[in-house]
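Consider the following assembly input.
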Amino acid sequence: MILADRTWQRLRRIPPSYLVFAALLLTLWVLRPHMMNPNILGIFIRQIVPLGILVLGQLLVMRVRSIDLSGGGVILLINYYISSGLFPGASMMTFIAMAIATGLIIGTFNGIMIAKRRVSAVIVTLAVSIVLVGFVQYLSSGKPPGDVPAMFAALYNTKLLGVPTPVLLWIALTLLMSLFLARTVFGRAVASVGENLTAAHFSGVAVERTVIVAHILAGLMAALAALVQTASIAVGSVRVGLDLPILAVAATILGGVVFGRGEGGVWGPFFGVLSFALLFILMTTLGVDEPGKLIIQGFIILLAAIFYGVRSAKP
Amino acid sequence: MSSPMASLVEMSNIAKAFGGSIALKSVSLALTPGSVHALMGENGAGKSTLMKILAGVHQPDAGEIRIKGERVTFARPKDAIAAGISTVFQELSLLPNLTIAENMFLGREPTGWLGTVDYPTMNQLAERALSELGLSLDPRTLVADLTIAERQFVEIAHGIKADANVFILDEPTAALNAADVEKLNRQIRRLRDAGKAIVYISHRMDEIFSICDTVTVLKDGELVGTKPLAQMTPDRLIAMMVGRELKDLFPPRAAELGDTVLDIRDFRIDADAKPFSLSLRKGEIIALAGLEGQGQQKLLRALIGLFQPAAGTVSKGGTALPLPASAASGIRRLQAARIGFIPEDRKDEGLFLGLPVSHNITMALHAGRPSLALAKPYQREIAETLASLQVKSAGSEAPVASLSGGNQQKVLLGRYLAADMDVLLIEEPTRGVDIGAKSEIYKLLRRFTAKGGAAIVLSRETIELIGLCDRIYVMHANTLVGEMPAREATEHRILDAALVA
């Protein structure tokens, strides 16, 4: 009886994304076996890399019981100033530096508002996103979107050892985040704050600082996601990346990371993102059109939210 | 004991289980008219369950209740009230947005000829009930505007005015000051002289001895015994409650003390309070005693920045700790000065219940290092702490939530012992743990001070403070009103010191 309980407990701790990923892979293999080709899969997975990177920030803030919905605005802003031609002659490194600075500034603002001013995380980050989107629309009004410097697209299309470079970047960042959370003092602080904020405070954890740093890193991840996204579409757009934050929340929950609890670690959400990639492949090859994809996407987010409710009710 | 025939209420062989846990095992209690019967026992001994059965809140699994010799069953609280049993429970159950009178007559308001509430009559009746208790409160006052003590009194008035024969008072004095306690005692004596039976639940020895005539002690859901109080002493009563002699529970006090390690000077909790100073020496455990909420907790929480005192200086080993401390970083600064603060509520403020024992023990150690540093495994510290605390768990990776209360408390203590603090500020060293674990925790604290540590302890249990500590400071009205060596202290002396001031 106890043994069965333990097994069940262990099963319950497996992030749902692993199961979803396996099920989708099996479905794809049965229905469209010709799609099971590393090159084709690689191209699809490459498309999902911006989401994958954004998720790394999302899982971090969700583990300290916060949330970051500002990623959409950050991605749009960075995409805009790379593609707008406002900075003629700027090198790729300059753009990367600008993007990172943007991410850090917005992350810091979010973090301070949430940790020090105690403003609702949803409201702060959503408002920041809306302000950024409005700002970009104001700047770009009447002007056609420009092109992204060719270097970005060139880099985006490279491969290393047969794997697209963006995918490698994603895997490397995930590894780094995994090690960072598992091995550093900061990682312990994140686990503590997520489990019990008051107890974290009483055991000497700098709770405010932990939440602020989590948001700064989430801003950084949004900036990196923006760079990859911009490179992938190679043009400016006023719509790019707006649905990514909510997808990132869904993938994170699917990966077993719910507010304050991090049983899925970093790899649960990683497979959550891969599940989204497989789902897109499946829907595309089955001929589901855009509205259909949107509906299915919505349902998955809904399911993830329901799942979160079930899990948090039984701690 | 009086003969069964003379009993007003007779509960015999009452048993009650909640799910798998047994709350009462064959407990009998007889209440005689004109008697104040103390019901004592540790938390979880079954006092409240027994009283809730008598009040019709719970139904017994076995046993019977007789009132004036007739067998009764109470399916709901209303039945018990109809049978003349009136209860004042510990939890305040008044509605803050109604007036005193509205609360007192809730559900049975006097009505006028149109069926509307007859406010003049209701207020008059309420005023009379209040004045019988010696209270001059306007019955039209909103309960929200009353002090906690006044609310408690209204609650009591509410219970007493019903025309009952049996009164159950469950810790009625927890929020009352001495003058109010005396007012209440007068009422209790009046009820007793009128031939009512009163059950009085309290943890305060002096109250029990001053007002009660008989005592029944419960332990772990079983009846230990019923005795006339005239034959009892506080020590014997405690021995009955804990099942062993008090002196066996506590380790010996400090043999010798070192230098002053913590010095609190000219401390003013708020602008109206008198300033005071106190000091703590190496090897010493001092207590902040007195009635509840007299500034003891404010003093400790001021040191960690969760309360802003009006004035004062604190120094540790000659180094000043600036006051007021910051709420965000006060604990970190204190820990850097090797002073640990152990909060009273281990579930909400202390432990990470879902995380492993190892994480709970090492977090204060980790927190003292830079964020980006690699986390040390601290395996030696974990193993040593678990061994010295004798924590019973399924290994250091088991979640703390899977441990018993006593072991959880030890893990919490272990966090600060592992972090190698010089001074511990402890709000409730043994809250909600059983007597065996208590005794072990006392030994652990003594071992900590024997190695040069020092501690300031607060506790709701004065007996614990007397047995555990070397010196006792008595606080009242946000200031220090007395100091005595623990070996000379009694609950009575502490209360005297608090109330004479």
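Chain B touches chain A through 30 residues (CB under 8 Å). Ask yourself how this observation constrains the way the partners meet.
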